[in-house]
Amino acid sequence: MDCETNQPIRILVADDEPAILESYRIVLDSDKPANDTKVNDLKAKLFGRGAAKPSQPEEPRFDIVYTRGAEAAVQAVRESRESEKHFAVAFLDMRMPPGPDGAWAASKIRELDDRIDIVIATAYSDVDPRELSQSVPPVGKMFYVQKPFHPHEVRQLAVALGQKWHAENKILRLAYYDNLTELPNRAFFMARIEQAISFAKQQERSLAVLFLDLDNFKRINDTLGHNVGDELLRTTARRITHSLRSSDTVSRSVVEDQNKRHLARLGGDEFTVLLADLQQPEDALIVANRIREELAKPMQLNDHKLIITPSIGISLFPRDGNDVVTLLKSADMAMYFAKRTGRNNVQFFEGSMNENALLRMNLENELRQAIERNEMSLHYQPQIDLTTGKVTGLEALIRWQNFTLGNVPPLDFIPIAEDSGLIIPIGEWVLRTACRQAKSWQDADVEFSRIAVNVSVRQFAQKEFPSLIAQVLRETNLEPSALELEITESILMNNADKAVETLKQLKAIGVHLAIDDFGTGYSSLSYLKQFPIDRLKIDRSFINAITTDTDDQAIASAVISLAESMKLQVTAEGVETVGQMQFLKQEKCDEAQGFHISRPMTATDAERFLRALKDQE
Fold it and tell me: Read out DSSP for 327-366?
């Protein structure tokens, strides 16, 4: 936004007579007023020719565009908006034959830029200034001068209106614009939607609101720092703006109607886009996908190369709401469902989302009190050595039995815990409880080698995570070698350099490290060599059809061979049949875990299971 007071005042002059344009040039282009000699003579009379001259304020600078005709003037304003070099004042001749007149130009200019001050100049007495002002509102931004005018009058108008424009823009910037991205803020955007809704109701037209949230932005802030996060937001704002400037039919209407004002930053990593005068709902989807494509291009921020993805929700007027608050809420809700369905996608609002959102809100409220109410528990699933049949470890799996909701599956509440940040205290509770139970079993002479605990994305991103592990081990007196941390492949590859550093700190403590769900992410073998890990866990999705699907067989065999060459252990998850067990034994997989061996058990049942196996030896 060009609102700095030291910037030149941009002025547009439109007249059909070359002589008049030259007069404007003499008045505005010179560094001093046209009647400079007379002014100096007057100063001499007032102060004496030898007297020191009083200090004068610096003369304002002008950046002037001259056009011949009304249509050329409108085009100049359009181009100024696209280049973001807005005019502060426009001097328009009332009659510019053979084309449209100044009143027509004023009306079109006002549609393009409602902040510009317009001065109509005419030599005719039949023009009614009051009628003209009312036809091109707002009244306070329309002025009128009679030809022939005094040069001082024109210059003073240019200076006064230009300085007023800069002052207004400065106030507007503070009140309605985001300092970081220079985009409109929530207040401005809400007002803009209200105007668009009013127009759409009058014209019986449709519009769309896009609500955009960056996926995993908090993780970038936490791991790379707020400076990188801020630069990412600025780059995102520029890229979305660029995607809205495409030349196709859908975006053209967006660009020609107030440029950036259709894009806003609501706060944090949330952006909104208003698509006015929508032809069909599919047009909103085209724009949303263009934004996704633009943001998918790698960003080089300082020394970091990042790829950011958005989740986008779309609401439509009047289908999804008749007012600002409802439309924005619907788009926000659709964005949330875009995140729930895998992120980096677009969702239109649907009525059923309201019911689901209420259920989620209730679930989150209950989850906040779950640990306090002692509603959480751990179940343990054995992992066995495929050669000896002995239990080598147990994976701790969280369960939630709520007083009103009953048994809530982990697939329902874990994503909510991740999104809300509740996974941090829940994850710490799981870690501490599992270590305490493992120590209790050791003291009771229950045989097993290790307890495995899953690590969430948010836990791993915390700088103090290794310190927490060391603290819990001290508190519970559990040997570090008895604890294995399972970290998903995608967590490690999000910021591989930082992951290597954290893994080394954890390894220095003495715990075992496993990559969970291996094969479902996008591991780089060059990074895999750097990770100080002990085990790969083959994801259950590759085990389900391992006896019939040659692709799954090839993947499982490749992971086992890779682990063997890297001297790593391999555990296959989700083993449910004898055939799967036989295939894994044949391929020399080290360990297996799944319903065929045992379902997850309470601590009491797990101890009974372990003792029974020992008695069979």
Answer: HHHHHHHHHHHHHHTTSS-EEE--THHHHHHHHHHHHHHH
